[in-house]
Amino acid sequence: MTTTTAEATIADARERIDALDDRIIGLIQERMAVSTVVQETRIASGGRRVNLSREMEILGRYRDALGKPGTGLAMTLLELCRGRI
Fold first, then answer.
1. Which of 8, 10, 51, 83 has its CB surrounded by the most CB atoms within 10 Å?
2. pLDDT digits over 15-62, tens only?
3. Residue boundaries of the structural domains of the chain
4. How far apart (Å, rounded) are the C-alpha atoms in residues 66 and 82?
């Protein structure tokens, strides 16, 4: 592979990564909005802001799909969506 071809391949791949990152950020923002609805509804009906058993399910799903780093990713996502507990 020539240097020019490699540079073009890398540039194309980086564009795809940037587009994927934009989509991921949009999905996270959408998840945050949906989570707010869940929290507000739970609180309004007399429940707690956080459902720890549900969070454990989410942590397990990410760990199963992505391995140990998935747990950290899920923790960050949960913190973004519900704030620190």
1. 51
2. 999 999 999 999 999 999 999 999 999 999 999 989 999 999 999 999
3. 3-82
4. 22
| Spatial contact of 59 and 66, defined as CB atoms under 8 Å apart | no
pLDDT beyond 80 at 84: no
Return d(Cα 39, Cα 82) in angstroms, integer: 8
Cα angle: 78, vertex 42, 36; to 5 degrees:
45
Q: Chain centroid to CA 25: how far?
A: 8
Distance, CA of 85 to CA of 81 (rounded, Å): 11
CA nearest to 72, candidates 63, 61, 64, 84: 63
Token output for 65:
């799909």
| Token pair for 70 | 């998935």
- Asked if residues 44 and 59 have their Cβ atoms less than 8 Å apart, the reply is no
